[in-house]
Amino acid sequence: MAVMQVSDLGVRLSGREILKGVTLPTLQGGQVVGLVGPNASGKSTLLRTLALGRAFSGEIALDGAPVLSLSRRDRAQRLSLMPQTPPIGSTLTPFELLRSYARATRLSVSDRDLGQRMAGLLGQLGLLPDAHRRLNELSGGKRQLVGLCLAMIGEPEYLLLDEPTSALDLRWQLTALSVARDFARDRGAVCIAALHDINLALRFCDVLVVLDQGRLAAAGAPEEVMTAELLARVYGVSARLERCSQGAPVLIADAVAQPAPV
Ligand SMILES: Nc1ncnc2c1ncn2[C@@H]1O[C@H](COP(=O)(O)OP(=O)(O)OP(=O)(O)O)[C@@H](O)[C@H]1O
């Protein structure tokens, strides 16, 4: 089962400190971790640092081994990032894109198993009717779903999703996060998803990590983390958690509580 430890993480870009002393709770396989926080708080930087080997200070360990001790190939196979921007339109079809990605990353899987894996993912995400259409003919939401397939095709131990639902309608927001959650549960993988929609984060995540200006503002069980005090302090809004008729927590944001920091 996957285990990730991140302690005292710091990242500098263009001479600016973007992440500062970020220590996360130990992240366990099977968990969905919601990475939340205001714009520019460092969510994408954190995900890219985990996945792409960007320079950092502090410690990142996978199953107890420092991430820097892994070969590039091992790291690419174990950690997979779905970037914020969907795959750009090209004349490739989703089917061709997935197959060429699997070959480029030298997935050790037979053609037959790869075909089944692709059909399974494309089917779960409602993409079978589009599997042989060119990407540049697909809508933005469909391309975002193709991006999710790409991140999952290698069956990584650490699935990192940067705003995976930002272009999706209600049905596919729920579907995409259900598929990611089942993936984490079934394979003992850690899924970390940067999300702006706090209600989706409350519904799907086991743990929330809140970033604010590059620092950890809070981490823990979603309902314990998402307090009115935190929402005012970190997001600058007056907001509250209520219970819906089914007992689930729902965030209601009432007003901007303070001017945005300059
Ligand atoms: N290559 C870079 N060079 C310098 N600064 C950068 C670079 N990339 C990101 N930043 C800065 O790092 C900060 C965090 O950016 P990041 O994209 O990680 O935030 P985010 O929380 O994902 O934001 P959003 O919710 O708006 O997508 C921002 O101030 C951004 O301008």
From TrEMBL:
Which SMART domains does this chain map to? Answer: AAA
The molecular function terms of the Gene Ontology recorded here are: ATP binding
Q: Quick check: keyword Coiled coil in the entry?
A: no
Record has Nucleotide-binding as a keyword = yes
Q: Name one Pfam family in it.
A: ABC_tran
Keywords in alphabetical order: ATP-binding, Nucleotide-binding
Q: Which InterPro entries match?
A: AAA+_ATPase, ABC_transporter-like_ATP-bd, P-loop_NTPase
Domain ABC transporter residues, every copy? 4-238
Spell out the PANTHER family in the cross-references. ABC TRANSPORTER ATP-BINDING PROTEIN (PTHR42794:SF2), HEMIN IMPORT ATP-BINDING PROTEIN HMUV (PTHR42794)
What name does UniProt use for this protein? ABC transporter ATP-binding protein
Q: Give the organism the record lists.
A: Roseibium aestuarii
